[in-house]
Amino acid sequence: MNSVVIDQPLHIRGLALRTSNERAFDEIPRHWERFHRDCAAGGVPGHLDGDLFAVYADFAHPGIDNRGDYTFVIGARVAPGEPTAHGWTSVTIPAGRYALYELARGHPERVGERWRDVWADGTIDKSFRCDYERYQANGDIAIHVGVR
Q1: Calpha distance 79→30 (Å, rounded)
Q2: Beta carbons within 8 Å of 44's beta carbon, 6+ residues apart
Q3: 52 and 135 in contact (C-beta within 8 Å)?
Q4: How does pLDDT run across 67-77, given as a tens digit for each residue?
Q5: This model's pTM is above 0.90
Q6: What does the alpha-carbon distance between residue 60 and residue 64 come to, in Å, rounded to a whole number?
Q7: CA dihedral of 100, 105, 111, 114, whole degrees rounded to 10
């Protein structure tokens, strides 16, 4: 596991789902299907590049744990201050340090398995404020876990 520092916040616009760890394995795959179905034609309005983000934020107990509900947003990076279009949600990935868990290029089906590695890793001090997955246009995939 490596770490990375994000110097500037990343502004993401996408489709939101309020879920919990108990419901996530059922709800998140359906949310991805909805995103691909609804966004296939035009993509995310105002997107800056071809990367996709899956952001975990608005935890029920921020800074404490990931129990309870949280917001899961699938979307793309937009310019700061870009108005949020109707039907879309904006979320900000805060600047800070993130533990980085990379996956084999082009294998998004392995993300769930990699998350199990993240939760088994007792060496990181998770912040429980914001985590995200980044799916780069070139096929690179990484999970970023906020750390203190």
Answers
A1: 28
A2: 13, 14, 75, 76, 78, 88
A3: yes
A4: 899 999 999 99
A5: yes
A6: 9
A7: -50
